[in-house]
Amino acid sequence: MPLPDDRPLPVALSRAWRDLPRAWGGVAGRAVLRARPEDFRVTELAVTEPSGQGEHAWLWVRKRDANTEWVARRLAQHAGVPVSAVGYAGLKDRRAVTEQGFSVHLPGREGPDWSALDDDAF
Fold first, then answer.
1. In a domain, 68, yes or no
2. What pLDDT score does 55 carry?
3. Is 19 a catalytic site residue?
């Protein structure tokens, strides 16, 4: 909905907000929150330690500015399994540096060389 002076509503509101009187005077400072992924860190807490046996490869991944589902797809592609064979505890923030556990179901076969998976994001 345009205002009488035809400025778009969001621009008009931001200017109007800035011009409102303040109870304690002018702006005391400015801040930028989460400008870089390193400004926000998330570390998943493991509930259990892997035994080293069984059909799952357990991976601890540090990712930077990367989405959890994207990492799961890359792990599945590298292992040659469907993405449904990759498990994780939940989605983590993309605009952050996060550490998260993943499992890859590899029934009856050895896993690939995980160190060969070279990606700047994780």
1. yes
2. 93
3. no
